[in-house]
Amino acid sequence: MIKCIIVGSGPSGLMAANVLEENNINYLLLEKNKSTGKKLLITGGTRCNVTNKYDVTDFIDHLKIKNKRFLYSTLSNFGTNEVKEFFNKNEVELALEKEYQYFPKSSKSSDILGALLKAIDKTRIKLNTNVISITKKTDYYIVKTNEKEYLTENIIIATGSKSFPKTGSTGDAVIWGKELKHKIIPFYPAETSVYSQFVKRNKEYLQGITLNNCEVSINNQKKKHIGGLIFTHYGISGPVIQNISELIYLELSKVNVELLIKLTNYNETEILSLFEINENQNKRIIRIFEKLTIKRLAKFLLLVLKLDENMLVASLSKQDKQMIIQKLLRFNVKIDKVESIENAFVNGGGIDTSQINPSTMESKINKGLFFIGEALNVHGPIGGFNITIALSTGYTAASNIGGYKDA
Fold first, then answer.
1. At what angle do helices 268-276 and 318-329 cross, to 10 degrees?
2. 155 Cβ partners below 8 Å, 6+ apart?
3. 118, 276, 304, 370 - which has most CB atoms within 10 Å?
4. Is residue 404 included in any domain, yes or no?
């Protein structure tokens, strides 16, 4: 009988294999694809933002999920520093970008995959092996595949979510989890773009416009979100939208959603001042708008406001000025939907963590059953959070396959 079977060869599964290998535990890694790490290779535009600089407390503070404290123990075991040490030990130099994100210096995700595979005995990896069912017996599991059945004392499920199913990530974990009496949270899109008919109708004016350090709020909520934003041919994308897309999705399930976008770096007092100082009174309003925001947006805003770009500043009414301030500071865009689960970079949902031991990743219901990575209902924003969570939970699960070492 095999001591442990890992299902899935993403970063969480491969990290688990590294730990089992180091601890001399008899294991097999089953992968449905013809190669390992298929999804890992396309992350970060094939550059792979593998981790970040945050300590455990800061890391958890950046997460938006309600159950984020679940990750405290595992990140304390194996957090961002340990991730960096692992790749350093395996001769992959990491480079810090944007003051907090770590990528391989080579900008090649294949180097990250290579490091994760380096110490693994390749004979333990069974490719083109599709797991059909997992059945619990008294003190072992039967894992039925397309080729044969395996018996194992422990099983680590690392099959991810439903994000990018062409990479083999088809949500199998929740199917098996449900059959093994676990609560599941349906998958939903996170870290993705959004669709807007308003933007689509006006794409000739908006498509391709990029705003840096843009301030966005959802439905006039007090919480402000800041980051890069880009108008696309179908809606809005960019880091700030990806980071709040799951909040938009959850809000859309209850009410209509409008994003309020700040289109200028000026505040209300500064905007009003530009329209009221004497030296600007005989200038065309388009010239003032071009100071307040980028040129393409200036022209579009005047169309939206139904103001002639050639009219003089002196001819603006008090009401006109208030409308201008409103549009510049709180430009409203109705959102129709969020990108699909399958095309989202990350999914929310998965195995409910209330039935998982946070110190071991082991099921509280079935001894010897572990869930890791995106199979769990935990995830983070862009910036190296999700791969760190995958590596950390994989490390923790495999470290707790106790008492089964080969003689």
1. 140
2. 4, 5, 6, 7, 134, 141, 143, 368, 369, 370
3. 370
4. no
Domain membership flag for residue 243: yes
Q: Which residues of the chain have pLDDT under 70?
A: 403-407
Question: What pLDDT, on a 0 to 100 scale, did the predictor assign at position 348?
Answer: 93
**pLDDT, position 45:** 86
Hey, what amino acid is at 63? L
Whole-number pLDDT of residue 403: 46
Contact of 239 with 45, CB cutoff 8 Å: no
**363 in a structural domain:** yes
Secondary structure of residue 188 in the 3-state scheme: strand
Query: Residue 365: its pLDDT value, please?
Result: 97
Separate counts of helices (H) and strands (E) for the chain = 14, 19
Buried (b) or exposed (e) across 150-172, using 16+ Cβ within 10 A?
A: bebbbbbbbbbbbbbeebbbbbb
Token digits for 311? 């009219």
What is the model's pLDDT at position 406? 37
Distance in angstroms (rounded) separating the CA atoms of residues 58 and 51: 13
Q: What CATH number does residue 219 fall under?
A: 2.40.30.10
**What's the start-to-end Cα distance of the chain, in Å?**
14
